[in-house]
């Protein structure tokens, strides 16, 4: 047995691998090393030994790679010099021959290279350098918070939640010019936003608040339906357009009193409906029926200033005009506008801006139009009832059952949204009746004559109570007579010193329903007040005059027959009793500062 030492070829390090074999002894001249040219016959004879040496080097390299993966990656790509240093970007010296043995085809895929075993500290520095250089070039604003061991990368959970529920800021204006920026979700409807504003403004939620899409440059505005997405509508607005937060008591009034909105002479059917007025709305909501609204309208020509009075009929497919009198034959009908990709607006100042023949104008505006007036289909009715009928029919034919669902859903949604629910204190004719408490038990007064007599007695009783209070508190520094003249200014239904035209405009904006009212200062008499009331879509004014009795000041609507110590008592009385008014006071106009 002999021991033979095999050295690695030129370019390797001074690593000695011992191998014990039972071979005859060899002379030193048979060794292949630097400066000793190897004999071809000896290399051929010992080719089998060279293959065994490569297998051993492969094993050593694999073990070193498992311990120092970063170093082994560099060792496979960068050759080593004889002094153990890396040959970085230095060409090998000319005339140097690499005496690496030929590997078998099985080992050509992963060919082992000579490995230089560096010190442990050098390996750690190399590994940190490679880990740092492999990171993406992201600037780190806080370098003192993270070192090479903790790279400045965002970890999972450090980012905000999913962007599916995107948020957007929307600016809402009120009637007095104040505004508020509200952050809403992308899927929030107009009804949800109104309920949120009611909750934040501490208002009474009676399902009559709406959002108004206001276009001052076009002179148009409309009430958003409760199911419409606010973000989607805002994307179609022009730069100077805005949202208004306003009351609209007539939003679903046609479901309660359809006969006030659809006169018989304006509605026709393919088949005569059975069931009278109750069947009227069902035919509008039923897609299989074919109701029509017909009548004369003033129509403005597109791109011109001229108006023409035409016979118009409204169907599910759109608005048509007759080119021959009142004929509705298909060959005489011409399409004016469709309802599918359009919205219905009312004209704010039609006479001034569009030279409209009447004050009861409305418009069918395509959704793609933002600030151009050429594609607006402008129309005018003869009176307010006609305009209301046309606009309500357009809403019903376009949205159908969605309107009825919006009308029925709000009472069902209150338990689902306890955080936004507010007490409901609306006054209606169904919830208030005349009562008699003169006996041991109260009873409902059903006879109108007896109810009027009880109202007169109640008015006299209030006068006696107020007189008694004046006597008891005569020593008070603030006299009751002075308090009665200013206490009404704290109420929402009192609008101060506004003109007659302004009061009519507010009534029209908040819905022409029976019993809608407001109080204001009189312009003709500085000591008097005016009650502005809506009845049958007409606005009427009643003057409230002060009168003196036994040295005290009272207020009366009927020339002193029924007297009240202040306006709050007057309003409370006429909410319960009609008296000399055409109807009871049901809803008051209100302006809320956001």
TrEMBL record:
Its main location: cytoplasm. Belongs to the GRB7/10/14 family. Residues 290-399 form the PH domain. The lineage of its organism: Eukaryota, Metazoa, Chordata, Craniata, Vertebrata. Residues 166-250 form the Ras-associating domain. This is Growth factor receptor-bound protein 10 isoform X2. Keywords: Cytoplasm, Phosphoprotein, Receptor, SH2 domain. It is found in: Cytoplasm. Residues 493-589 form the SH2 domain. The keyword Transmembrane helix does not apply. The keyword Cytoplasm applies. It comes from the Eukaryota. Residues 1-48, 83-111 are annotated as: Disordered. GO terms for cellular component: cytoplasm. The gene is GRB10. It comes from Acinonyx jubatus. Gene3D superfamilies: Phosphatidylinositol 3-kinase Catalytic Subunit, Chain A, domain 1 (3.10.20.90), Pleckstrin-homology domain (PH domain)/Phosphotyrosine-binding domain (PTB) (2.30.29.30), SH2 domain (3.30.505.10). GO terms for molecular function: insulin receptor binding.
